[in-house]
Amino acid sequence: MDPIDGEPQFGEKPLLNTNSRPYITPLDAKAATSAPNSTQTIFQGSGVQHSGQGPLIVGGNVNITSNAQPDSKEAVEKCIKALFLTDPSEDRDMLKRKKGKRAGGTCEWILNTKELNDWLRLEETEQKSRPNGILWLHGNPGTGKSTMAIYLAEELSTAFDAMENMTLAYFFCDASFEKRNTATSIIRGLLYQLVQRHRNLLSNYILPKYKERGDQLFTSFDYLWTIFIAAAADQETGNTTPNLSILITSRPYPEINEYLQDFMNADLASFDEARQDINRCITERVDDLAKKKHYTDKVKREITDLLRDKTEGTFLWVGLACEELRRKPSKDAIPFLRGIPKGLTSIYKSLLETAIESETGERMAIQRILSFVAISFRALSVLELSEACQLHQDEPDLDTRLQYIRDQIASCRLLVVVYDENVQLLHQSVRDFLTGSGSGFFIERIEAHADAASCCIDNLIKRFHSGNTSSTHFLYYAMVYWPEHAFQYWWNMLWGYVKSIQP
Questions:
Q1: Stronger pLDDT, 257 or 398, i.e. the higher one
Q2: Rounded Cα distance, 140 and 268, in Å
Q3: DSSP for 210-268?
Q4: How far, CA to CA in Å, does 277 sit from each of 162, 192, 250, 282, 322?
Q5: What tens digit of pLDDT does each residue of 270-299 get?
Q6: What are phi and psi of 171, to 5 degrees?
Q7: Three-class SS of residue 71?
Q8: How many CB atoms neighbour CB 262 within 10 A?
Q9: N or C: which end of the chain has fewer CB within 10 A?
């Protein structure tokens, strides 16, 4: 997941081993007789029937039958609808479209690494060398973690579909989307995939609890986690040992490293193949530019060499540099590349300075846009952002207003992009840059949240006095998130005070 992407797989030991002397503990027998929707349990076979307490030992096959009525189709559909929050497969495809086409031949090497094969258990490994089923792949911003996660999700989905003893589920986190940025969202997404593949899991583990607690069941992480572990351990999802394996991709945040450093992990940049991926990406991007800009072979070679020298293993840097090259005539391409600095922070600063210098009179609008997008709790539509930043509100024609705000978003020079009519920062690292003191355009979180809370409240007051609540643009965001912005302002003020009085 980027911030945290993961592709778990699931499996378990069979509950009943029908060898010559299968054995069920008292706990197992109790669980069998108290299964959801079960009104009668009969052990049939060439062994004995059991009606008392204690272990059950049988000498032949074991069959468990029930005369319970199946859950109604309406109840099942209602439960699935309540469970659904977001479809991870659709999120994967959306992220894939947003990222663009993967450079040919990149990412494929990961399937042959010892780390992934140990995690998949395709190679024989001693238990002492693999004390757990967690693999953490980490990397710095812009180094291809999301693209790698997309590739793994696609490849492993295809592979696991052909396996009867494993089930794959995955989830892509995104801090900009409220349906994809919480632990509860992750569990709901994983459970949704499990029940789509194994519908009996819904009846056995989720539906009984849903009948008791209703929609509140899906807002409790503790309840969902208990259900998830039980479902992952079910024989339907697989029969490997251990029964749950988790793959996580993320930045090497200190708080994540604290918990995952003792598990199997690898820095993506440490693989030689990752550096080769960068070269493949540069070659493909320059070839594309050369066709559009009609570069000579000499210019093409120099551009390729400069990109390889300055990229520092960052795909995002290559993408930004190439997008800027599209704006430049051929004669300016090489001087431009020689002038831009290495590193994401440096190129962000260069882009921002260029935007402010070239867009006379637009500095205030650019600052408003960047500030609100950087601290918003979900992605805003173009019209929502227009209202939030009070841009072109006196323009009565909606299409004209939309065009004006789109032009100002374009003035932000790739730091902010519009995707599916939602305004988003290009990358999480842009938020880090804008809210860091080294940007030269420093967005103070305390002031930004205070301004956002004030903007939301002003919008609500105006709507209340005017009696007009028909707009569906910024009004809903203001109603839901003004307390969140106010809390962030209060919390950051309090935390700043606490730090100031500490010795």
A1: 257
A2: 9
A3: HHHHGGGGGG-HHHHHHHHHHHHTSGGG---SSSEEEEEEE---HHHHHHHTTSEEEEG
A4: 29, 34, 19, 9, 16
A5: 999 999 999 999 999 999 999 999 999 999
A6: -155, 135
A7: coil
A8: 10
A9: C
**Pairing between β-strand 244-250 and β-strand 4-6 as defined by DSSP bridges:** antiparallel
Structure tokens at 325: 């090259």
Tell me how crowded residue 105 is: count the other CB atoms within 10 A of its CB.
13
- For residue 189, is it left (φ>0), alpha (ψ between -120 and 50) or beta? alpha
Across-strand partners of 23? 57
Q: Reduced to 3 states, what is the DSSP secondary structure of residue 137?
A: strand
- Mapped onto helix, strand or coil, the DSSP state of residue 6 is strand
> In this structure, what token pair is assigned to residue 98?
């947003």
* 226-278 pLDDT per residue, tens: 999 888 887 766 655 557 889 999 999 999 999 998 999 999 999 999 999 99
- Provide the pLDDT for residue 51: 46
Q: What is the rounded CA–CA span in Å between residue 418 and residue 425?
A: 9
**Cα–Cα distance for residue pair 45/42, rounded to 1 Å:** 10
